[in-house]
Model the fold of this input.
Amino acid sequence: MTQRTLSDGEALFRIQEPSNELYQVVSGNIKCNIYSHDGTEVVIGTLLSGETFGEQGLIDELPRATNTYSVGDSVVNVLSKRHFFRLNNKYPEINAQLLIMFSHRMRVAFEINTDNLTLPLHQRLSRCIYRIVVNQSSKMAQSNELEITISHADLARMVGASRQSVSKELKQMERDKLICIQYGKIVINSMDALSKAYHDAN
Done:
């Protein structure tokens, strides 16, 4: 396994490139996106410290389905295809963990798609922020902080809305004391209230 350092905005891989490596985020954030036919960016998600990605292409041997870019400076561990299958042969229990991970990602993807098709913006946004917080909860537990680093523009692309509409909804969430908006990040004031907003939409 090797390490690779990425600067802000640097691409790790792009759509249709060969799937030759598996990655794990050591530090920083990695954004996954695609572009529509008219050039509009659609953010699929943000990968945080400790998360693994890129394994699907190694297994199905198809080209990359998304672009990945570093948000700020990032460091990733890189495992080659050859070493991945060597480990897989030595430790077959890896397959069970991969199935669990695939299942979880499919559930989340289905949930996000359903949200974007059926829910009003304020609920989509609350649920999106909740998912991000839960996803990086172990990292925040180490730092004793409850905050996420994400731009209003990226949030807008994740929930299928304009940046202006998302900023307006975030201001309302701030007035409701759910969050506190700071430069480049969102501080969570009440995880209980955010959790309630998430589950009330189910």
Q: What stands out?
A: The chain is about 45% helix and 30% strand. The chain has two domains: 2-91, 114-200.
